[in-house]
Design goal:
Elements (H helix, E strand, L loop, with lengths): L3 H20 L34 E3 L1 H10 L4 E4 L3 H6 L6 E2 L2 H7 L7 H4 L10 E4 L13 H11 L5 E4 L2 H7 L20
Parallel strand pairs: 1-5, 2-3, 2-4, 4-5
């Protein structure tokens, strides 16, 4: 039997591929045939008002993000990685709320008290989201930061930016990274 995580990943890829291919199927009308016209109606429904576009997060390069953090002390720095990724390296002063718990944790932050100390952003405060960023960018599968930005806008936060390239690009630029020893997060240190 295949390894479960690999098996699940293969199934997910197959489902995404099938859905993508199904959406690309065009309906063609044979030459000379006339498409069926809709049945006449006695009254037409009023058109729906246009849906306003969803707010979009700004993508900041590593240099832009570093400048923002240097120049604006009000920026709320939000790491939406897993705890293990946070321990591997994070930007100093970050609050850790994994994207999987962001919906319930952003307004009343009780996650990782030793790291976050209850810090939560104001609705109008500038927020810079970051994660470790995946290596392949697929337009149908968002990064943790992109998913987090969507959640934040749904919760009414109005000034959200994303660190493009995440911690991968931050570390490639040689910018400062803090690492958490296993004991600092309340877990026993791993055996050598």
């Amino acid at each position: 039997m295949p390894d479960r995580p690999v098996h699940k990943a293969m199934m997910l890829v197959a489902l995404v591929a099938a859905a993508t291919l199904a959406g690309c199927n065009e309906r063609r009308v044979p030459a000379g045939a006339r498409p069926a016209s809709p049945a006449p109606t006695t009254s037409q429904a009023a058109p729906s008002p246009p849906v306003p576009p969803a707010p979009a997060a700004r993508y900041l390069s590593v240099d832009e993000a570093a400048r923002l953090l240097r120049d604006d002390p009000d920026v709320f720095l939000l790491c939406v990685c897993t705890e293990e990724e946070y321990d591997r390296g994070h930007i100093a002063g970050s609050v850790l709320i994994p994207v999987m718990g962001l919906d319930i944790g952003i307004e009343r932050n009780e996650w990782f008290p030793e790291i976050n100390r209850g810090r939560t952003p104001r609705k109008d405060q500038p927020i810079l989201c970051y994660c470790w960023w995946k290596t392949c960018i697929c337009p149908t599968i968002p990064t943790y930061s992109q998913a987090a930005a969507r959640i934040l806008f749904q919760k009414g936060f109005t000034n959200v930016s994303i660190l493009a390239g995440g911690m991968r690009d931050w570390t490639k630029k040689g910018l400062p990274v803090e690492k958490s020893p296993a004991s600092a997060a309340g877990r026993p240190a791993a055996a050598p």
